[in-house]
Design goal:
Layout: E1 7-10, H1 12-16, H2 26-37, E2 43-44, E3 47-48, H3 61-70, E4 83-84, H4 88-94, E5 108-114, H5 117-124, H6 128-144, E6 148-154, E7 158-159, E8 163-164, H7 167-180, E9 184-189, H8 196-208, E10 216-220, H9 227-236, E11 241-244, H10 264-273, H11 282-295, H12 304-310
Parallel strand pairs: 1-2, 1-11, 3-4, 4-5, 5-6, 6-9, 9-10, 10-11
Antiparallel strand pairs: 7-8
Helix pairs in contact: 2-11, 7-8, 8-9, 10-11, 11-12
């Protein structure tokens, strides 16, 4: 069938590294992105244009963007490199630049909203309503420049600050992002507290509200080891875009207790095992996972990668 292709959005260089305590050298970040580019991945989130005093680890994202544009990584297929943008100031960094070194600008950005007030205040320093007032001109200007915009919704199941998230709230925020011009909305179980039941209830609420599955992506963190089974529920509900992080890197600096995303290696293995196609070379991506874990001195949080490489 034509519905057996799953697009994997690799978020390791951004969601994976943003929470690392010691600053990862720019060369290591660029090498990570270049290595990931050889694996068949089609989307690699490469950084974020946020306030450096909030997230110092992402402060060199401008250098990453200009490097990627000046020396595009070797890849077997076209790769998109999106960057997170919270406001107009962040968008400036994504636009074409004439100051040396000049570059033609990012082709895609992501804006990130929350389904919970508590997390919106922690993460964006403003209410959900104010965050949307700030996103509006960002999306408008990005689209005027031909930059595609993806949306994120955080805390879609529960929030450490505000408690359980009503699915209707996720529906409301998702619709707003789509109405604003986002081509796709990624649903963040930021702290990994979802289970197959709560994820299914959420999926059904979104689909019953008339949001087509083609407009949705699953962004599940693996804090409690439930991310793969939750992705399976997404798959069963018709979702074909999944976010993951090589070696399961990551966590959100403003989400207490959150660990990394589902590992890309584990997601690819799972998808292939149920007959889906990803275009991703599992062995190659496992090697990248082993390399980055070693390079930043971190435990490899993938199960599949080390098992495969040990064979
Ligand atoms: P604020 O402090 O309210 O902003 O932060 P402000 O407008 O008052 O500015 C404060 C300072 O930041 C000023 O500098 C600005 O120039 C600067 P100063 O005058 O003090 O020297 N500034 C910026 N600098 C660079 N780029 C910018 C920018 N904006 C302001 N874009 C703000 C508000 C939104 C900026 C801040 O809260 C912020 O940067 N938040 C981002 C937090 C973040 O990156 N979180 C992680 C990503 S989200 C996530 O991980 C979840 C996700 O994975 C999905 C999921 O798992 O659920 C996506
Ligand atoms: Mg995340």
């Amino acid at each position: 069938t034509t519905n057996d292709f799953v697009k994997i959005v690799e978020v390791g260089p951004r969601d994976g590294l943003q929470n690392e305590k010691t600053i990862v050298p720019l060369d290591t970040k660029i090498s990570l992105i270049e290595r990931l580019s050889t694996t068949g991945l089609r989307v690699i989130e490469a950084g974020s244009f946020v306030a450096p005093k909030w997230v110092p680890q992402m402060a060199d994202s401008t250098s990453i963007l200009s490097h990627l544009l000046r020396s595009p990584p070797l890849a077997p297929n076209p790769v998109t490199y999106p960057f997170l943008v919270p406001n107009l100031k962040g968008l400036e960094s994504a636009l074409p630049s004439t100051t040396p070194p000049p570059h033609p600008g990012a082709s895609e950005i992501s804006i990130f909203a929350s389904a919970s007030e508590g997390f919106s205040l922690k993460n964006l320093n403003c209410t959900i309503a104010t965050s949307f007032e700030r996103f509006e001109p960002v999306v408008k200007k990005a689209l005027e420049h031909g930059i595609k915009v993806r949306g994120y919704v955080s805390m879609v199941i529960s929030c450490p600050y505000s408690g359980d998230t009503p699915p209707e709230k996720v529906v409301e925020v998702t619709k707003k992002l789509l109405d604003m011009g986002c081509y796709e909305v990624s649903l963040g179980d930021t702290t990994g507290v979802g289970n197959p039941y709560s994820i299914d209830v959420l999926m059904k609420a979104l689909l019953e509200a008339g949001i087509p599955p083609e407009k949705l992506a699953c962004h599940f963190h693996d804090t409690y080891g439930q991310a793969i089974v939750n992705c399976m529920v997404g798959l069963a509900n018709g979702i074909r875009v999944f976010d993951s992080s090589v070696a399961g890197l990551g966590g959100c600096p403003y989400a207490k207790g959150a660990t990394g995303n589902v590992a890309t290696e584990d997601l690819v293995y799972f998808m292939h095992s149920v007959g889906m196609k990803t275009g991703v070379d599992l062995e190659k991506v496992s090697e990248v996972g082993a390399w980055i874990s070693e390079a930043i001195g971190r435990k490899n949080n993938s199960k599949v990668g080390p098992a495969l490489l040990a064979k």
